[in-house]
Amino acid sequence: MGFIVSIMLITQMDEEVVFWSFVQLMYHPRYNMEQLYLPGFPGVQRMKFVLSKLIKQFLPKLDAHFEAEGIIWTHIATQWFLTLYIYQFPNHPHLLMRILDVFMTEGWKVMYRVAVCLLTMEQHTLLKMKMEGILPHLKNLQNNKDAAHVMTEMHKIPLRTAKLDEYGREYDKLKAAGKIVD
Description:
Blueprint: H1 2-10, H2 15-27, H3 34-37, H4 42-58, H5 60-68, H6 74-83, H7 93-106, H8 109-127, H9 131-139, H10 147-154, H11 161-176
Helix pairs in contact: 1-2, 4-5, 4-6, 4-11, 7-8, 7-10, 8-10
């Protein structure tokens, strides 16, 4: 959580504005970030499920490759979601601010778009790698990325809020039925 507050303060937001913005991020239904930090990280588990479904949809070859290599790659996404990519792009303040601006207006859809975009940009390289190289590469997906290019490519991904909601409801049903254990 400190990453999020600190980036708001660094951007010269007034302390009171930062406080109330953070309250909104934590409790407003659009963001509901409180769920990310509860015991067991229920919000993170749900988001990883949704992201996994998106990768199956948009990058089926990469998904199959990860599965063949025995990679549970969504664990890497935990840090992405918990920090809103702030940890991934510390040297790209313009990209961070653009992502956070879109997040404040659209909600989580932009975070999924960034993930799919980064994986799309690296798919060719990742498909050539074995398990030993994949995880370190995933941790550094953001390296050498041009902020403007990431934003342009990210917005080309045809994500629909209805589809994200559908995947979220699917997770909720499976969780309620005991078919998913966090």
